Amino acid sequence: MLRSKHLVGLILAATLMATLVPSLTSVYAEGQDKQQEKAEAFVAAAVDAMNEVDELMKTTEVPTDVENRFKDGVDKLTAAQEELGKEEPDYGSAISLAKEAMSIFREVYKQLDSDAKVQSGMEDQSEGLIEAMSRALIRIDRINGTVYGSEFWSEINKILLAAQDYLDVEEAQNWLDEGRVNETAWNLTQANKLMGLAHSLLKKGGQELKVKRIEQYLDILEKFCDRLQQLAEKAGPEAEDLLDQLNYVNQTYIVVAKAALDEEPPDIQQAMENLIEARNQLEQIKRDLLELRRGKPPAPSETWRVLADLEDESSFNDVEAYITKTDKAKSVEFKVEIVSENVPHGVYGMGIAVSKSIDTIDFQVWYREYATPYGWYYQEYPWDTSPVVALGDSGTGITATGDHTGKVFTVDIPIELLGKRGATYYFAIQFRTNYLGTYPEDLDLWAQTDASEFAEATV
Predict the structure, then answer these.
(1) 391: part of which helix (H) or strand (E)?
(2) If you average pLDDT over residues 199-212, what whole number do you get?
């Protein structure tokens, strides 16, 4: 609630990691980077295989010859890792050594098949393995169908073919009839790992496709903005405010979206948030231009820059925001946009108190960011005796957007709650951050009993 002694702030940082894992089949004429990725993938797969065998060896008595064979595999894997660590590694040699290590680990795994713990429940396990292999084959067909014909299909298909080689159901059934459960389980495990690699590559390709589509959308918005600027310039001096708004949209949202796409990896969420907001504001500017051409003035708006000075804190923690009041046909919109960047603010929230008389306060609306349940709330004055209700259940017709994961909040208040046309009303807006434990040197809405410190406006 607004009486909370927490200040609201936000750090938007997106850390996304996507790893393109190369095909585990032979590919000729590969570049150096691709060879490196391929070698690293084989070594990683060999490490996983070694760990699996090691875990199995802990559950049973291991013959000396099997243990020695396992050590041979570890030596091969160590040699592959050392090759990768060289200043000028031979990736082909590293791949060969890793393959040899995997072959040895598979051999050891096979010889441990006699372990009693692994053999228990062999019949049920055999049936489950066949069913799992059948499901894996269906999954391979589904993935192939999804990417067939795309620019990623060739690389993914190579991996899936390698996985399919491990899923010979007929051979698996023969092995299981002979009691070779662990060998069959090993094959299924390798197939699942390869399908995981294919899925990673598919995800990487999907990310690239998203970026391309967003770049296309960005190009459309830039052309839309240029067209609106041409229309505004033709409209003459009366459209100067609209030109300023266009420049603001471009510098505040479109430029930020471009920067987000240039990050590595691209910050898709931030780019889309800014482009959506840019689109909304450009549409409003378009409507205002049409009204201007028809001889009607656009909806008047006022914008204030506010810097909340956080008491007894250094200036880099100050919260900077723009507050815009826009008079619409049937409502008044109040918008708070936090523009602080790269400062430790936690998450943000806002509140607005409104009154038709300077002697009292009618109601307040706020976003609660400092405690759960998060959300928009409404309360009438007096604060100590009036119930707090969810804004959507207030029946007032007030709407609001924004939450603690973002930096833009809007509250749209129907005109009838502010008085008749031409009447005076009073309002006060507060934005907060939950990061610190003291209020900024601005208005504490909860402490107010009248509107004497509020801003004055006319309906």
Answers:
(1) none
(2) 65
- Distance from C-alpha of 441 to C-alpha of 119, rounded to nearest angstrom: 73
The full set of domain ranges for the chain reads: 32-205, 209-293, 301-458
pLDDT at residue 394 greater than cutoff 80: yes
Q: How many Cα atoms are found within 13 Å in the side-chain-facing hemisphere of 353?
A: 27
Q: What is the CA angle 123-127-133, rounded to 5? A: 140
**363-368/399-401 β-pairing:** unpaired
Cβ–Cβ under 8 Å, residues 343 and 3: no
**433 contacts 8 by C-beta, under 8 angstroms:** yes
User: With the CA atoms of 23, 27, 30 and 36 taken in that order, what torsion angle do they form, in degrees rounded to the nearest 10?
Assistant: 40
Instruction: Give the amino acid at 121.
Output: G
Closest CA to 180 of 105, 131, 114: 114
Cα 402 to Cα 412: distance, rounded to the nearest angstrom: 12
Top CATH class of 301-458 equals mainly beta
How much is the pLDDT for 296? 56
- Give Cα separations from 62 to 49, 309, 448 (angstroms): 17, 70, 78
Taking residue 64's Cβ as centre, other Cβ atoms within 10 Å add up to 7
How does strand 301-308 pair with strand 319-327?
Answer: antiparallel
pLDDT digit string, tens, across residues 418-450:
887 678 888 888 877 765 444 444 445 656 667
Coil, helix or strand for 396?
coil
Instruction: Give pLDDT, residue 17.
Output: 24
Per-residue model confidence as pLDDT tens digits over 17-65: 222 233 333 344 445 677 888 888 889 888 988 988 888 887 777 888 8
* Radius of gyration for the alpha carbons in the chain, expressed in angstroms and rounded: 32
Residue with tokens 């008047």: 300
Closest CA to 6 of 381, 446, 440, 364: 440
When pLDDT is averaged across residues 246-268 and rounded to a whole number, the result is 84
